[in-house]
Specification:
Layout lengths: L1 H22 L5 H30 L10 H4 L3
Helix pairs in contact: 1-2
């Protein structure tokens, strides 16, 4: 699935961005938190999407049936 590959690439880019912020000593700690919060929120959404797509790839729904992904999620 191409979408899984794209999400994995996006997650890697977000991780690289977080590392760049963490390693930049010129940014104060509280500003680092403010810069990283939206990135980490995006990462959480992409992680969940990747998990859902992986589950659907491994357990495809039968035709004309709801996928049931909500039953799979823990939260």
């Amino acid at each position: 699935m191409n979408s899984i590959k794209h999400i994995q690439n996006a997650l890697k880019e977000l991780d690289d961005e977080v590392q760049k912020i963490l390693l930049d000593w010129s940014i104060p700690l509280n500003e680092k938190d403010n810069l990283m919060l939206p990135i980490l929120q995006q990462k959480r959404v992409l992680d969940q999407t990747l998990e859902d797509l992986t589950y659907l790839k491994e357990h495809p729904p039968t035709p004309n049936q709801p996928c049931g992904i909500s039953k799979y999620r823990n939260d």
